[in-house]
């Protein structure tokens, strides 16, 4: 029986991302420390089960600054263990409200500095937008008021624009979340239905997000993928392992053990393995 691929993409915000995603009255350094500790835990688990993941990392984390904002050694370690390094923008910006030149600079600078850190030009080919925004794709009739920056007033409020910039900047794939009108009408769960696979737009691959987390629902998604012979894309946050939710460490432990037990049916590999 042919195997399916499970792609686990980690949204690795790092210190700069957590600062930009946290309200001032909720800020604490402890979650930053926890996230870095959790990254090491994830790497150890990957080694234990011989899994390889994709880590979408904020580019600022590879700049020459100070710890914990600079984590070059951690980024190098992730790559040296066979995992993919993708871009999570430069500093975890809200892209729909950015001006075109800001978007271009963020996309290009993050790719450049991550590759410079790793020492391998052209190796960063994936992009994961912070906050999964924009969720508007005008050409497909998908709109989200939650983007705040609405197209055409803000070019960054349209997935199609980002695809063009990413492709021109040397990226091969991006993870984008959007809902078509028919899916809203019939309230289909696009995260767990697996009806959406990888889409090609002008030679650029749009990968889906089938589920965020590692709980029982995540396992159900994998079982559906095996049954339907469809590849599955799961999202996680290293910081989420420390919270009591669907990404909690107890769920992650059960999840990787489940994947290992199904190794005859599943390959756990990074997204860029599809293009190598």
Topology (SSEs and partners):
Layout: E1 4-12, H1 14-21, H2 30-49, E2 54-57, H3 72-80, E3 84-87, H4 100-118, E4 126-127, H5 159-168, E5 173-175, H6 181-185, E6 199-201, E7 204-207, E8 211-212, H7 216-228, E9 232-236, H8 249-261, E10 266-268
Parallel strand pairs: 1-2, 1-9, 1-10, 2-3, 4-5, 5-7, 8-9
Antiparallel strand pairs: 6-7
* Tally of contiguous helical segments: 8
Q: Tally the beta strands.
A: 10
Number of individual domains: 1
Which CATH class is shown?
Answer: Alpha Beta
Regions with pLDDT < 50 over 5+ consecutive residues?
none
Q: How does CATH name the architecture?
A: Alpha-Beta Barrel
Secondary-structure-derived class: alpha/beta
CATH topology term: TIM Barrel
Overall shape: globular
| Most strands sheet | 6 strands, parallel
The CATH superfamily is Glycoside hydrolase/deacetylase
Query: What is the CA-CA span between the terminal residues?
Result: 23 Å
- Element pattern in H and E: EHHEHEHEHEHEEEHEHE
Beta-strand residue fraction? 5-15%
What portion of residues is helical?
25-40%
Mean pLDDT: 95
Radius of gyration: 18 Å
């Amino acid at each position: 029986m042919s195997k399916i691929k499970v792609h686990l993409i980690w949204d690795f915000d790092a210190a700069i991302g957590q600062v930009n995603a946290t309200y001032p009255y909720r800020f604490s350094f402890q979650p930053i420390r926890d996230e870095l500790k959790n990254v090491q835990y994830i790497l150890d688990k990957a080694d234990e089960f011989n899994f390889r993941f994709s880590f979408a990392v904020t580019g600022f984390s590879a700049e020459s600054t100070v710890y914990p904002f600079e984590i070059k050694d951690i980024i190098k370690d992730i790559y040296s263990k066979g995992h993919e390094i993708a871009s999570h923008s430069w500093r975890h910006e809200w892209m729909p409200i950015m001006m075109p030149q800001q978007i271009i600079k963020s996309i290009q600078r993050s790719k450049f500095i991550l590759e410079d850190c790793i020492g391998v030009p052209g190796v960063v080919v994936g992009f994961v937008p912070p906050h999964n925004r924009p969720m508007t794709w005008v050409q497909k009739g998908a709109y989200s008021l939650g983007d705040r920056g609405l197209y055409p007033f803000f070019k960054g409020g349209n997935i199609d624009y980002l695809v063009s910039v990413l492709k021109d900047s040397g990226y091969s794939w991006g993870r984008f979340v959007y809902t078509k009108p028919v899916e809203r009408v019939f309230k289909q769960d696009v995260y767990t239905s697996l009806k959406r696979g990888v889409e090609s737009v002008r030679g650029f691959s749009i990968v889906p997000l089938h589920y965020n987390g590692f709980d029982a629902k995540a396992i159900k998604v994998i079982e559906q993928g095996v049954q339907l012979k469809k590849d599955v894309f799961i999202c996680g946050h290293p910081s989420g392992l420390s919270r009591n939710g669907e990404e909690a460490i107890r769920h992650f432990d059960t999840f990787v053990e489940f994947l290992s037990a199904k190794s005859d049916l599943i390959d756990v590999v990074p997204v860029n393995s599809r293009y190598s």
